Structure formats: structure tokens, C-alpha cells
Amino acid sequence: MRTMPILLDAEPATAAIQLHRGRRAAVLVALKGSGNATAKELAAALRCSLNAVRHHLRELEAEGVVDHQLAAHGVGAPAHSYRLTATGHALFPDRYQQTVADLLDHLVASEGRAAAIALLEAHYRALASRAQAGSVDLPAGRRGELVARLLASEGYMATWAETAAGGALLTEHNCPHQMVAERFPEICDAEEAFLARVLDATIERRSRITSGCGTCSYHVVQSAKDEASQ
Question: DSSP assignment of 89-123, as one string?
């Protein structure tokens, strides 16, 4: 059985918890973090009974926030794999993205698209300054954890995990500006440049929410300087 990811900051789950409390909210947050999971995986991650998880999943499916499909999981018959629907994803923070997207559209109309892109890039430069203020002297792994926590506080539900093959994987389980990214895909390039700068590493994008994936994820390869210092 695979290990469910652990989110570094619970605050981004606030919107979901406001409508769904207790174990039902925990199921939603777990599915947001994993992308998809079987009832057995959810029961193990949440440390509750399989029957309880199945009960919550049935109720969440009836509400239209969760659905399932058959998927192969090792030896044996396929199992039901659960995931959030678009309605389920909408329970999580969006950082007023409709307002931001509309403001950027007005900026494009008045000053051109380049002005809107410059504004988005300035946002990530400011975020980089915040990250670098507390991470300059940290080893690469600790720096990655700090950046993930910063992104989590901004609504990205970010996790940081070292990989067995070397490097690390930074995963964003929520996109707080998905609507903006769909209109201005340049924001994704600005985010990638931000990560390369604050992590002092080579960044390889592995998935993108706006392309239909459940997460935005990046493989992080440390610089030779950081590898030598560890």
C-alpha cells in the first residue's frame, strides 16, 4: 500500500472544514493531498475503520464532491479509487482568483499583456524575498521544507519530500490561482523561476494542474555547492 502524503500546513483546509467537519473533512483533505486513494488507503492514513471511511465516502459522493473509478491496485480485483470532483476542488482556497483574473484583464486592456505579466513576476519576486530572508544559511533540505511551508501559507497545500533517486519532489496539491493560470500561463513560468531562485537548484516540472493533473509537482536537483555541503 502506498504512503499518503502529509501536508505541511493544515490552514489551507479551512474552506473545506467550514462545510464538512470531523472525519468527513479529513477525507476531503486527504484526497486533495493524494489526488486519489482507495477506501483502505484512506482508512490507514486517517487511522479509522474501513466501514467509517466508506460511510463518509458514500455521503460525499451523494453531495457530488467525490467520485470514484475502478483502478488496478496490485494483485487481485480492481478497487474503487476515489478522487475529488470539480465541486470538491472548489471547496479549497482560491485566494480571490476571480477578482485577480478580472483585474489582470483590465490591466491588459489598458496597458497591454506585458504589464500584466510584469505584475505577476513582481509577485513572485516579493515571495522570493520572503523565502530567502529565512533560508539563506539553511541546508538544501531544510530550505525546501521552509519554501513548502511558505507556499502552504499562500494556499498551495505544498509538500516537500526527498527522493530515493536523489533530489527532492515539491508538490502543490492546490492551485490558489488556477483561473489566473488558465488565462495567463506565464504565471507558471514565473513560479518555476521563483523555485529555481530560492532553492538554488535545477527545477524540472513533472505535472501541472491546468493541464488536467491532480497536482503541480517539481523535481528539484540541488546545486553542486549544496550537495558538497551535506
Answer: HTTS--TTHHHHHHHHHHHHHHH-HHHHHHHHHHH
